[in-house]
Amino acid sequence: MRFKLFVVCALACGFMAYVLANENISTEEDLDDQVINAVPQIVANPKPSQPVKPKADTEFVEVVKDVPKTTTKTKPSTSPTPKPTPSGQRMIPVVHVTSRGTDDVLTVAGLKPQKTFGALIMPDDYMGELIDVNTGYNWDPNNNVAPPGYPSTAAGGYTITPARLAELRSNFMYWFFDKDMYGGRGDYQYDIHASMTQLHKNLNFQMPFYGFRFNYTRLSLNGYLEFSDPPEYLTYPLVFPIKDWPTKRDPSFMGIFFSKCRVGRIYPSDIDQRTPGVYFRVERDLMGRTDQFGVEVRERTMWDIRQGVVGAETFVPKHVVIATWKNVSFAGGIDNSLFMTNTFQMVLATDEVYTYIMYNYAVLNWLSHTEAGGDTTTGAGGVPAFVGFNAGNGTQAYEYKPYSQNMVIRDLANRGWANGFPGRHIFRVDEQILIGSCNKDIDAALLPLTFAPESGNMLGGQVVNITGPCFDPNVRVTCHFDTESVLGTYVDTNRVICVQPFLKAEGYIRFQISVGTQRFKWRGKYFVETPAAATEKIFFTTDDVYKKNPNEIRITWIPYNLTSNSNANVMISLWGYRETKIEPQLEYIDVIEASYSNTGSYVITPSNYLNRKNVNRDMQFGFLQINLTQPDQYSGLAISPILWSRPVPLAWYMAPQWKEQHGIQWPRALCDNWLRSDRFLRNFAADLPLCPCTLDQAVLDKGRYRPDRECDKDSNPSCLRHRGAIHCVVSGTPVAQGAEQQCCYDRYGFLMLTYDQMWGSRPRRVHNLGKMPWNEASKVPSLSMWFHDMRPFYSCCAWQEEQAVGCETYRFERRPSQDCVAYQPPGIAGVFGDPHFITFDGTAYTFNGLGEFVLARSIDESNRFEVQGRFQQLPTNYYGEVQATQLTALAMRGNTTTTIEVRLRPLHARWRYRLDVLADGRRVYFDRESLKFQHFDGVTVYTPTYLLNQSQVVVQFDAGIGVEVVENEGFMTGRVFLPWNFINKTAGLFGNWSFNKLDDFVLPNGQVATINTNDLRSIHTNFGLKWMLTDRDVPGVGAALFTREFGRMSSYYANATFQPNYVLDPADFLPGNRSYDVERAKELCGECLQCQYDYAMTLNRDLAHFTKNYYDTIVNMQADNAMRVVSCGVLQTPRFGRKLSFDFMPGAKVSFECNEGFILLGDQRRECLSNGLWNIPEFGYTECLREVYYTRRIAFIAIGIIFLVICPLMLCIVCGVYRYRQKQLKEDPHWQMPVLPRSRASSARNLRTLNYDDDSDTDASTLKKSRSYDKVYRTNEPLPGKPQIDFPAKKWDLDENDEDVTSSEGEKPKQSGRRSLRASGTDLDQHQHQDPEDHEDDDDFDEADVHTGTIHPAGYHQPLSPEEADQLHRQQYSPTFSGLDSRTSGASSINYTPQAATQNRFGGVPVLPSNTQYYSRPPSGVPTATATPLRTAPTPLTQDSGLPSPPLATSPTPSVQKSTEV
What we know:
1462 residues; alpha+beta; eight-stranded antiparallel sheet; seven-stranded antiparallel sheet
């Protein structure tokens, strides 16, 4: 009996061993005879291989045919002798000839579902392989033996040929080996089986996946690569991410077929007898590999991804991972379920920035395992496998619908069509999951539209590759860009191309496609870049294009942006823009170059276009365009991408035509035309916000100003149109009328004004973003701004002198800078740390709430805004749980604006981006230059141009509200900036902004809570929790604005019962044995209590450091904004002059200078006083005048002075004399006005004439300058009581300039002019002999000569008698000179008779009458040299009044007195 039992047990054990042996893998000895191509074979007359020509997709993905060959693949021939290759290896072509049965799976065209249960069957007409004669290795892509050797980077290695690449890419499955040439198992993972389903693998490189980055993975038998432990228990259907994380584990994985599996079995009749199970292979550092296998892996993967995924045109794989699940069955099956197997493969490629995954589904025979409700024999029914990706850590997941966990999952082997293969699906998985293959279209509601690129220039021409539904070449595809529709071009089943048209829009627009007669079901968001801010694709090497008359213009571009074929030809054309109608006009102008090689550079010679006659010559700015001339020759498609330049002025092209039309002063004519048109438009300056006075203020005003792309100290310091500036800011959003403010600052940080120079700040009529509706003139983004604001800058200033009338009109009248006299800095509040708050009024407190709360909101119904914050608990420290929270997200919204949310990314997902930004729930990124500034409805979001990791985000609302979010080492701070129109209109945790700290703790019902800021419990209970948000709208609080993902509502984050630490001082809440932590906190933080608190709570030095940094920053911001800024405002620069400095702050002293040829008038220096006013000019306001105008002004001033001073004075004198005369005549009717002497010279001549003595030895024709001392000057009335004084002898004060002064004796007297004829004594008689008709020729003729005296018989006048002369003297008498002086002042000499001298010896000085009738010219026939005196001197007249009498003694006679010669 026992023996029978033993036999039965032995039989049972044997049966079990047999079953186990059949269930596990086959032995190597059994497989040796079944391996295909294990031994190279030589077949006579082999069938020549026919390489499959790859289908041309687009112009972006091309295979370069002219590749130098280093290894030549020998074509099959009738001769079995192999041809040696240049590398020294001998390759022998081998062709496999097999009969294909009805159960074949693989064909040359692709894969088909297997009809029987088994593995893959190789095609019978596979292309010829090469056998390495030296190593004996067969390079058949389906060889099951791993290639020999090690990775090599040696120079001059293997270069793949296009034929070999086509041969490799014609195979569906990538390499996987179960053997190697050294007896190993190749890629086969024999350690993975039913009892151990996963195996850890080190990647030794960084692989980005779903926002995270990993350098390892875990290969699982269950159809996925994971990066963390899966949950202990799975419930079906699977839902990711795990909502209960971190309570439950949420794994990060890539699931190609996530289901419980076990190793299956294969039939002996299967051709591919590779061992069932899991295979894993890693190929690293492919970029530098030169060995054959490394090069083939790199090239095959690269081109499969480039042609399979839109947007991967430049991808080059650095590392490749190949994981293959061959003949795996489902767990829990019975009977022959082991033969019900699936085969699929995952190919993962990355360059450590981008990651692409390729899912190859070869055979799918079962859908689900028994635990998920599947059948135990066929694996049908139940919940099918999960296909998709999970980021892990409770973040995000992507499920590949409609296949995942759906009965249509079996269609994965028949759809996808990546690279033309059914069953191949490609994804991009580094940051977001983007599908690269067409999918089954149920209702287009499960899968978004995938297209690349996701943005383009507004001018159009961007080629957009689209993937979504599976396309049919016979079915029309329509693409709809916002309001414009274009027809698509079919490329293959997986791709359609649409060319973006000219779009009059900016920012994100709707992008939809329709297939056939269906509606637009596939939707996405397309970003339109403004022409002035679009990605620059045509580069100007110099600034010559902006000049008035350049000699040449050099341009460059990247040839690959058009095509990778260097032999392609391109066309360069010129386009222009104008606004003469309501509709904007972008028009073609001319062809610059019709056909030119795509070399990437070209030189434009403006002189080649001198004779152009364009009908649209009124276009003053435009663009250069480059496109392919015959794109179908290079890509097989009649579609060419278009490259556009930035806007440029067109003087280099249009100047000859403008000169012909307007003359040599064509810039002035263009400027005048613009001035006339601009004066008809409304004044927009009053709509703009005022510029900050200093650069520091401008940087801190985050709500109203953002950096200007044209002049940014961080990214573009060239400042082409603002020379001397280091930074400019512009208004973030357009004002109500669409205008834009600009404020530029010099190296000293002061505002630059157009009143000072033409490079100053210039406001703009049209914002670069335009204004809705964008399809009208003056509202088009960028184009209208250039037409109204940039264009006139060149015609009025840049192409003319700075002092030109047009430029000054442009600067002072049409585009004047606004000063900062009335500028008001914004109010600032912030939150940071764990967390600490500082209100708008400066109150600092700590509130550790857990959940979502209101930070600030407006109580003004007409101008509302909300800023909300999410606070989550801090991670545990060395001592356990931390009873404190930190800021992790901010959400904000204006009146009707887009809702913006900024989130802190998980710890291990910050390798590329630190913050996530969501606009209306959609993630947006700022990692490209054209995407740095993004505008949404009523809000602008931007990141600093020097940051690529999104660690700082600024949100600006159209009401002037700004929110800044900054992240450092995982710790956020949020700051809110408000303009002054929100004073007394705010509420929330940031308090009421009223400049009064007592009303900061305002409750939602409007009441003010009385709270001690040191009582953290009271703040938490009585104030903070009152502002907690829920998903429903609470009066006074509002509803939460945060985006809800994966079913996580506000209650998921909120916990009103959370009890934080209420003690602020670390010494009070830390136990006594942690005194070191207290000292360490003080050492790190100093006097900052917030920093000490954070370190004591978390023991995190980074948190403490940034808490102190954030606290100091916001305190300094508030202090700077609270400081009153005094500015003196604009000090106008004189025309034709300049200021030596542009400072306008108190204490500034500004000096002036004038240009050459001008004279400065007024004050040369002005000073800004402390009261904000310029000092009053002492010499008048400063101006510069041309020299000719200055001289003319001085002359006018002199004439004015004469008229204003001399004339009134003369009038007064005349009036005074007249009044005096009237008074005298009233007293004495016979009173006459005394005659005043005319000149001193005349008196001197009369005196020396009278003093002439005939006893002198001087000739009668000669006169000496002498004074006779024997003559005494007496007055008629001597002074009473005064003695008689005889004056000493002295020379007469004769005028040196007298013309009648002669030299010494014997010399002729000097004669000058007609009056010299009467210089001698005879001249006095000549006039008496003159005929009456001769009076006309005598300039000195006086009619009184005819009526005075008697006529002598000789023909001349007889002098008056002494009595008559005395009577006449009484009527006309002067004590100094008489009227005779004026008549004889021109005579050179006068003769006196001796009798007259003797008679006047002591009788006083005889004074002649005032008229000249006593002396007349002698007759014309009488010579003057022999003339003798004809009369005696009249009786002398004496006057003794006022002068002393002469002494009794006689004075020397004139005959003794010698004359003194002058």
